[in-house]
């Protein structure tokens, strides 16, 4: 069961206990943008930006914030109506009441109330008192700007670094005094905190004492530190704060435990013990960078369906289990090795995502040697290891380990579980191996040049290419998630994927890769053909013969041979247009007729074939061996087409396209075979090409190629392979 598996994982990643501290009251890896420095009497010292800038690809500015560990978390789950602060580490709403929503004041007040509570609990703690003073002065508008300390420090440390000089010691002392006096005058200024949503160019939105700070929105978080702690946040420097927050957390959680009804507590769904059920369940740090409820009942949304609060059988989980579940989920979402996010596309600036992303988390019960996150990105080493381990056999103790996968998306801050499955490592590794093996092109990608196809590249060949290479791709979720689940769990490919592939081949005008226009999409993209073959093979029934990588002249489907016919007609035009002897020219047959021929062969192919006869007649005069090869092929193909099909279903159209692709590839493979064979005869065949020659020899035999033609046929090179597309 999903909750049990998550709980187990949560227990596994639980940090070692610390005396008196509830570890779940603090979060790790938190992004905090600002540090607010105050002094011991609660005066303002400085506001420091924690962002680190660096230049990313395309000279894009990337700002990251060194993550902070052990930051107070909000105690209970609900913050949607303000309040419930992350103590001394929250956003502008809580610090200064600045908010885009109406809860600014409420959140501000709740923060102050806790600061007061903290100071009252620890009357001897100077930090607790400083925090309280700061808030008291803030409410009264009495916070003074206390910038003198740092300025004097700086001047002093500057002089300390200078070589000692008896003569000017006095002068130095005087400078320090002047600096002190200057800032003493400044000290009388009470700070004003203002929010300017439309600042002048170059100025920030947050204004403190006429100085503007580049805060982008009111949700940016600020941690508090004391001047004496040398920029260490209070929640790290002050042990009492950690105790205080733990206690608060414990109390709030105790309130969430539902008192037992007359018959005693129901057993917890996770651990089976009769413990009080927790309500509300609690939130985790979220799928879209905001807190999200995992389990939710008794909320108004449910009551609108006519349920009354407490009536729906709740997922009765005890407090301890619910905390472990959330801890486990948060930990899984943090790592790319255990989670994968599928977006429809990047929203425009200022817009939210219209279709929420689907997020998968996947994990094994005990750690294994495989990084499944890396197989998603088709990392070469990981894929190799997967293929090898299937070849060698996976050790039983690893093979039997449980593998869990959970797919979720978010809707109004609630988690929707879209998918959940449990299997074992053996199944998953075997599925992945079969996936990558099925996508592999034996001829083009043999040996050291093998590069596995990633999910992104496969998704890319099913949709329209963006106009600019830098624009975002948009994938319908059923395609990306469908392919992901097929690969990991061996699920069938969703039928719309086949339709999308066929549509792309029909719509794209260009048939082959054009080095002049290397960004343009083309019908026969290797990844598209590989995915088409895989999709068709996985749609087959048990008694059907799956498609091989290369041409199969014995296939029964007439549409396969119709596709081949189109490819031969295309080749005939190419060769009859040859500008210089022995070099093929251009052909427009496939560009023009692929779309119509793959939907209604009956009304298109006879015309194409008739035109082809003209090209063949020209070829007979100019290049007899090529003419002969084509005639033999046409005889063979036409003998297999009893009558042209009237219309083709998407699956049949896919077979048609594959037939076209195989027949077209045939010409290049035969030519390549001739080249390697010649090298073998001359004794100049490189070792690394021997396996390729073996594969080609097998291919030529299966394709019933008449080897006596070989000597006279002109060379025909496959179009130059395009550079890998950006991922
Ligand atoms: Zn439990």
Comma- or semicolon-separated keywords:
24 helices; 727 residues; four-stranded antiparallel β-sheet; 16 strands; 4 domains; three-stranded mixed β-sheet
Give a brief description:
The chain contains 24 helices and 16 strands. The protein is α+β, with helices and mostly antiparallel strands and 727 residues long. The strands form six sheets. A four-stranded antiparallel sheet has the order 13-14-15-16.
* Spatial gap, N to C terminus: 35 Å
Instruction: Assess the beta-strand content as a share of residues.
Output: 5-15%
Please, how many domains? 4
The distinct ligands, each listed once, are: zinc ion
Q: How many beta-strand segments?
A: 16
**If you compute it from the alpha carbons, what radius of gyration comes out, rounded to the nearest whole angstrom?**
35 Å
Q: What value does the average pLDDT take?
A: 83
Number of helices: 24
Unreliable stretches (pLDDT < 50, length at least 5) are: 296-312
Shape: elongated
Strand arrangement within the widest β-sheet reads: 13-14-15-16
**How would a textbook summarize the main sheet?**
4 strands, antiparallel
Q: Helicity, in percent?
A: 40-55%
- Secondary-structure-based class equals alpha+beta
């Amino acid at each position: 069961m999903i909750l049990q598996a998550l709980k187990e994982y949560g227990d596994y990643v639980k940090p070692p206990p610390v005396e008196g501290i509830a570890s779940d009251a603090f979060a790790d890896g938190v992004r905090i943008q600002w540090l607010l420095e105050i002094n011991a009497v609660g005066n303002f010292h400085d506001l420091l930006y924690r962002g680190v800038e660096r230049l990313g690809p395309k000279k894009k500015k990337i700002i990251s914030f060194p993550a902070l560990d052990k930051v107070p978390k909000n105690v209970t789950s609900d913050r949607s109506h303000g309040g419930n602060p992350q103590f001394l580490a929250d956003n502008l709403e809580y610090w200064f009441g600045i908010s885009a929503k109406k809860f600014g004041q409420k959140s501000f007040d709740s923060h102050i109330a806790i600061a007061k509570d903290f100071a009252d609990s620890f009357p001897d703690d100077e930090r607790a008192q400083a925090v309280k003073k700061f808030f008291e002065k803030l409410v009264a508008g009495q916070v003074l700007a206390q910038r003198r300390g740092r300025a004097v420090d700086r001047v002093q440390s500057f002089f300390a670094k200078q070589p000692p000089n008896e003569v000017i010691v006095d002068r130095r002392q005087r400078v320090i005094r002047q600096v002190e006096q200057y800032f003493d005058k400044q000290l009388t200024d009470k700070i004003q905190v203002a929010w300017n949503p439309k600042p002048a160019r170059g100025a920030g939105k947050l204004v403190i004492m006429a100085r503007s700070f580049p805060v982008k929105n009111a949700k940016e978080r600020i941690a508090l530190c004391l001047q004496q702690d040398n920029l260490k946040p209070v929640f790290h420097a002050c042990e009492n704060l950690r105790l205080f927050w733990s206690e608060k957390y414990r109390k709030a959680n105790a309130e969430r435990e539902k008192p037992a009804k007359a018959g005693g507590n129901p057993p917890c769904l996770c651990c089976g013990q009769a413990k009080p059920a927790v309500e509300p369940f609690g939130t985790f740090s979220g799928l879209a960078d905001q807190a999200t409820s995992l389990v939710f009942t008794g909320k108004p949304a449910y009551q609108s369906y006519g349920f009354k609060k407490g009536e729906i059988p709740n997922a009765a989980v005890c407090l301890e289990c619910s905390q472990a579940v959330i801890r486990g989920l948060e930990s899984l979402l943090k790592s790319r090795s255990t989670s994968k996010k599928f977006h429809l596309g990047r929203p425009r600036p200022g817009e939210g995502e219209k279709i929420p992303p689907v997020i998968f988390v996947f994990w094994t019960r005990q750690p294994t040697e495989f990084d499944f996150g890396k197989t998603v990105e088709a990392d070469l080493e990981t894929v190799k290891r997967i293929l090898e381990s299937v070849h060698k056999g996976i050790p039983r103790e690893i093979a039997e380990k449980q593998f869990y996968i959970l797919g979720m998306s978010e809707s109004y801050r609630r988690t929707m579980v879209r998918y959940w499955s449990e299997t074992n490592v053996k199944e998953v590794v075997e599925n992945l191996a079969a996936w990558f093996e099925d996508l592999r092109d034996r001829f083009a990608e043999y040996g050291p040049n093998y590069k596995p196809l990633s999910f992104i590249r496969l998704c890319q060949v099913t949709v329209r290419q963006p106009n600019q290479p830098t624009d975002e791709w948009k994938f319908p979720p059923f395609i990306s998630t469908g392919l992901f689940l097929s690969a990991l769990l061996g699920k069938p490919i969703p039928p719309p994927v086949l339709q999308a592939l066929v549509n792309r081949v029909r719509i794209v005008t260009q048939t082959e890769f054009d080095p002049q226009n290397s960004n343009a999409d083309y019908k026969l993209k290797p990844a598209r053909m590989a995915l088409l073959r895989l999709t068709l093979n996985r749609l087959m029934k048990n008694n059907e013969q799956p498609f091989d990588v290369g041409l199969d002249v014995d296939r029964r489907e007439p549409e396969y041979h119709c596709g081949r016919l189109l490819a031969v007609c295309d080749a005939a035009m190419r060769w009859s247009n040859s500008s210089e002897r022995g070099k093929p020219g251009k052909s427009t047959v496939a560009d023009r007729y692929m779309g119509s021929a793959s939907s209604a062969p009956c009304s298109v192919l006879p015309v194409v074939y008739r035109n082809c006869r003209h090209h063949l007649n020209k070829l007979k005069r100019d290049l007899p061996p090529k003419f002969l090869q084509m005639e033999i092929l046409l005889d063979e193909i036409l003998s297999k087409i009893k009558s042209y099909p009237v219309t083709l279903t998407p699956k049949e159209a896919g077979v048609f396209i594959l037939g076209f692709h195989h027949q077209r590839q045939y010409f290049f493979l035969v030519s390549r075979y001739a080249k390697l064979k010649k090298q073998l005869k001359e004794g100049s065949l490189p070792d690394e090409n021997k396996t390729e020659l073996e594969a080609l020899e097998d291919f030529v035999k299966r394709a019933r190629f008449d080897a006596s033609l070989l000597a006279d046929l002109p060379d025909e090179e496959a179009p130059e392979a395009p550079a890998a597309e950006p991922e």
